[in-house]
Model the fold of this input.
Amino acid sequence: MGAQRADKGSGRSGKCPICGQPSDAKYIPFCSRRCADVDLSRWLSGAYAIPDKTESEDGRENAEPPRETDQPESDSPGS
Done:
């Protein structure tokens, strides 16, 4: 079983999202400390952002259902 654990650190877990090199088990998903720091810097500078506004299916931001009016509706148009 010890040989299987050694294989886990061989970088076969994918490619580094920053430079495309094989990722290193020590820095997963990155290949090095440098690429991990580049990614962190991008988050801290705002280059990456999680959207805080939602869009409805028709494309409007922060869409809310129509509000009911505070005035009571009358049964006839002239009253």
About this structure: The longest helix spans residues 33-45. DSSP finds two helices and no strands in the chain. Residues 1-11 have pLDDT under 50 and may be disordered. Residues 16-47 form one domain.
